[in-house]
Design brief:
The protein is an alpha/beta fold and 583 residues long. It is built from 16 helices and 22 strands. Among the domains are: 112 residues, Succinate dehydrogenase/fumarate reductase flavoprotein, catalytic domain (Flavocytochrome C3, Chain A, domain 1); 123 residues, Methane Monooxygenase Hydroxylase, Chain G, domain 1, CATH 1.20.58.100. The strands form five sheets. Strands 1, 2, 6, 7, 8, 9, 16 and 17 form an eight-stranded mixed β-sheet that branches. The chain has a five-stranded mixed β-sheet with strand order 18-15-10-21-22. The longest helix is centred in the C-terminal third of the chain and has 25 residues. The structure holds flavin-adenine dinucleotide. The site of flavin-adenine dinucleotide (FAD) has 45 residues, from helix 1, strand 2, helix 4, strand 7 and helix 5.
Length: 583
C-alpha cells in the first residue's frame, strides 16, 4: 500500500475538521504538512446543512445575558450530565469564534445599525444564536473552505473513505483510506491525528441526517480498542418534516412558529408553560409523541400514513419567512408542495444528533481508557464526546462546539508535531497492521455470502426506529439487542455485488453499514444499563432522573468476543448545581 507521510492528518472536512486544519495552518505559520481526508467532497460534509445558527454571548450584559447564564442553560439543558469545566470553555470561547467567522466571510444577519442579530433557541434563556438566515452551516463551511484553499501546506483528499485507524502502544500512527475514484488504498501516516467524522444518527431510518452520517470515525476508534462515551443519548428533534424527516429548523419556533394538535391547541402549554415551543428538544419531542399517543395527532393521505402535529408559521407572514427562513419555505414547497405562509407543516420527532461519541478529555484528546489519554489523537465535533452537551444538546451549541474544539485540536496537533518526540517512523508491527487493512478490504470486496447489505440496513433502521426511540423500556431494548446481535451475525455472511474498483459505492455502503451496526449495539447496551430517565434517554420503566446512581458517564469498550463492555466515570460539576429541570 502506498504510504503518505504528513505532520498532521485530519479525518473529516466538516466544520470541526476544517476549523482544525485552518488553526493548524495558522499556528504552524503555514509550515505543518496537513492532510484532510473526506469521504465526500469537502463542501458536501453534513455541516453544510446546519440551518438555525451558532450560540455565543456576543453582547454580555444586554438583556441580562452572560457567559454564566449560557453555561447554566447548557448544563440544565443537558440534564446535568455535561462536564461543566467543558461547558465553561464553550461559553467562554463561543463569542470569539462567531467574530472570527465574521472576518472569514460569513454574512451574519444584522440589524439596521450593523449589529449581528441574535435569535431565540430552545432552552436558551435569552436570544443568543447568531445566524445567516437559515443557511448558517453552508456559509460557515464555505468560508472555511475558501480560506483553507489559500494554504499550500494543506492538501484535501476528497472522496477518500477511511477504513482503519492504526494505533501502537496508545499512540496514533496512521489512517488507511480507500480512494473512491481509483479504488486504491493509501495509508496516511502522521505525527498527529484528528478525527472529525460527525455524528451517527443515520443508524435510524427516520432521521434528519444524510446517508453519509454513519459514524465511521467512532466505529474506527471503537474497533481499534478505544472507548466511546454516553452513546445511549441520541437527540430526537421535534420537527422533522413528514414523511421524509428532513429538518424544519428550530429557528422556525425561534422566530415564533407554534406547535398545534388536532384540536387546534398550542399543546406545549401542558408540558412547559414558561418556554412553550422553545423548551429543550427532548421535552418538546416527548410532548409531541404524548399528544399523538393520546389521540390528538393528525394524519393526511398527502403525507403518507404517519401521525404528526402541525408547525404553524402562517402568522409570521411572507416577508419574515423570506428574510429569516427561506430554506424552510424551499424545503416545504419542494418536498410536500406546501407553502408555510399559507398552510401549517406536518412534523414529527426525528433522530437528529448524537450526544455520545469517542471518549475525549476536556481538550478533545482521545482517551485510551477510563484514566489515560492516547498520544497524538484528538476527536472533535459531533464524533467526539467531551462531554459538553450532556444528556441533551441545546440547539445552536453544536456549531460552537465544533469550531472551539477544532481550533484547540489544531493548536495541540501543531505543538506535538513540532516536538522532538513525535515521529512518523513505523515499526514492523505497525506496517503489518496497515497492510492488514488492505487485506480486510479485499476480502470484503471478494465476499460472496448470502446477505444483501441493504436488507441489513433496512432491518437496522426498523429496529432503531421502533425499539430505541425517544421513549424506551427494558422489553423493547432487549428485543433490539437480540435483533442487532442477529444483524451482526448476518453481516459476517454479507456479499458485495459490485466487484469493480472505481467508485464502488456498493463497497462503501457495505463498510458503512457494518459501522452502523457496531454503533447501534453500543447505543442499546448503554440504554439497557442506564436505569433512569435523563435528557434524551427516557425510560418508561424508570421515568425519573436518579442523580445518586446515574449522574455518571457511560464508557463503552469492544470486548475480544465482539460484545460491549461498560464502565462509568463521574461527571464534573463546577458551577451549576443539579436541580429539577422545569421550563
Ligand atoms: C439538518 C441539520 C441541521 C443542523 N443545524 C444546526 C444548527 O443550526 N446549529 C447547530 O449548532 N447545530 C446544528 N446541527 C448539528 C451540526 O450541524 C452538526 O453537529 C455539525 O455540523 C457536525 O459537524 P462535524 O464537523 O462534526 O461533522 P460533519 O459536518 O458531519 O462532517 C463529517 C466529515 O467526516 C467525513 N467522514 C465521515 N466518515 C468518513 C470516512 N470513513 N472517511 C473519510 N471521511 C469521513 C465526512 O466526509 C465529512 O467531511 C444540525 C444538524 C443537522 C443534521
Amino acid at each position: 500500500m502506498e504510504v503518505l507521510d504528513y505532520d498532521i492528518v485530519i479525518l473529516g472536512s466538516g466544520l470541526a475538521g476544517m476549523r482544525a486544519a485552518l488553526q493548524a495552518a495558522i499556528a504552524s505559520n503555514g509550515k505543518a504538512r496537513i492532510a484532510v481526508i473526506s469521504k465526500l467532497h469537502a463542501m458536501r460534509s453534513h455541516s453544510v446543512s446546519a440551518e438555525g445558527g451558532i450560540s455565543g454571548v456576543l453582547y454580555p450584559g444586554e438583556h441580562g445575558d452572560s457567559e454564566d447564564l449560557h453555561g447554566y442553560d447548557t448544563a440544565k439543558g443537558g440534564d446535568f450530565l455535561g462536564d461543566q469545566d467543558a461547558v465553561e470553555l464553550l461559553v467562554k470561547h463561543a463569542p470569539e469564534e462567531i467574530k472570527l467567522f465574521d472576518h472569514l466571510g460569513v454574512p451574519w444577519n444584522r440589524d439596521n445599525n450593523g449589529k449581528i442579530v441574535l435569535r431565540p433557541f430552545g432552552g436558551m434563556s435569552i436570544p443568543r444564536t447568531a445566524f445567516a438566515s437559515d443557511k448558517t452551516g453552508f456559509f460557515m463551511l464555505s468560508a472555511l473552505y475558501d480560506n483553507l484553499l489559500e494554504f499550500d501546506n494543506i492538501k484535501i483528499f476528497h472522496e477518500y473513505l477511511a477504513t482503519g485507524l492504526v494505533m501502537e502502544k496508545g499512540a496514533f500512527r496512521a489512517i488507511t483510506a480507500l480512494d473512491m475514484a481509483s479504488g486504491t488504498m493509501r495509508a496516511f501516516v502522521a505525527k498527529a491525528g484528528i478525527i472529525g467524522t460527525g455524528g451517527f444518527a443515520r443508524i435510524y431510518g427516520f432521521t434528519t441526517n444524510a446517508y453519509s452520517c454513519t459514524g465511521d470515525g467512532a466505529a474506527l476508534a471503537y474497533n481499534a480498542g478505544l472507548p466511546l462515551k454516553n452513546m445511549e443519548f441520541v437527540q430526537f428533534h421535534p420537527t422533522g418534516l413528514v414523511p421524509s424527516g428532513i429538518l424544519i429548523t428550530e429557528a422556525s419556533r425561534g422566530e415564533g412558529a407554534y406547535l398545534i394538535n388536532s384540536k387546534g391547541e398550542r399543546f406545549m402549554e401542558r408540558y412547559a408553560k414558561n418556554k412553550m415551543e422553545l423548551a429543550p428538544r427532548d421535552i418538546v419531542s416527548r410532548s409531541i409523541i404524548t399528544e399523538i399517543e393520546e389521540g390528538r395527532g393528525l394524519t393526511d393521505p398527502r403525507f403518507g400514513d404517519m401521525n404528526f402535529v402541525h408547525l404553524d408559521l402562517r402568522h409570521l407572514g411572507e416577508e419574515k419567512i423570506a428574510e429569516r427562513l427561506p430554506m424552510v419555505k424551499e424545503i416545504a414547497l419542494k418536498m410536500i408542495g406546501v407553502d408555510p405562509a399559507k398552510e401549517p407543516l406536518p412534523v414529527a420527532p426525528v433522530a437528529h444528533f448524537t450526544m455520545g461519541g469517542i471518549h475525549t478529555d476536556i481538550n478533545g484528546k482521545v482517551m485510551l481508557n477510563d484514566k489515560k489519554s492516547t498520544t497524538g489523537l484528538w476527536a472533535v465535533g459531533e464524533c467526539g464526546c467531551v462531554s459538553v452537551h450532556g444528556a441533551n444538546r441545546l440547539g445552536s451549541n453544536s456549531l460552537s462546539q465544533c469550531v472551539i474544539w477544532g481550533k484547540m485540536a489544531g493548536n495541540a496537533a501543531v505543538q506535538l508535531a513540532k516536538s522532538g518526540g513525535a515521529t512518523t517512523e513505523l515499526s514492523h508491527k505497525t506496517k503489518k497492521l496497515i497492510d492488514s487493512q488492505e487485506d480486510k478490504l479485499n476480502k470484503l470486496l471478494d465476499s460472496n455470502g448470502s446477505e444483501n447489505p441493504y436488507d441489513l440496513r433496512k432491518a437496522l433502521w426498523r429496529v432503531m426506529d421502533v425499539k430505541v426511540g425517544a421513549f424506551r423500556n427494558l422489553n423493547s431494548l432487549k428485543q433490539a439487542r437480540t435483533e442487532l446481535a442477529k444483524l451482526k451475525r448476518l453481516y459476517g455472511k454479507i456479499y458485495v455485488d459490485d466487484k469493480s474498483r472505481v467508485y464502488n459505492t456498493n463497497l462503501r455502503d457495505t463498510i458503512e453499514i457494518g459501522n452502523m451496526i457496531d454503533l447501534a449495539c453500543v447505543v442499546v447496551a448503554g440504554a439497557i444499563n442506564r436505569k433512569e430517565s435523563r435528557g434524551a434517554h427516557a425510560r418508561r420503566d424508570y421515568p425519573k432522573r436518579d442523580d445518586k446512581r446515574w449522574m455518571k458517564h457511560t464508557i463503552a469498550y469492544k470486548m475480544a468476543s465482539g460484545g460491549v463492555k461498560l464502565s462509568y466515570i463521574p461527571v464534573k460539576i463546577t458551577k451549576w448545581k443539579p436541580e429539577e429541570r422545569k421550563y
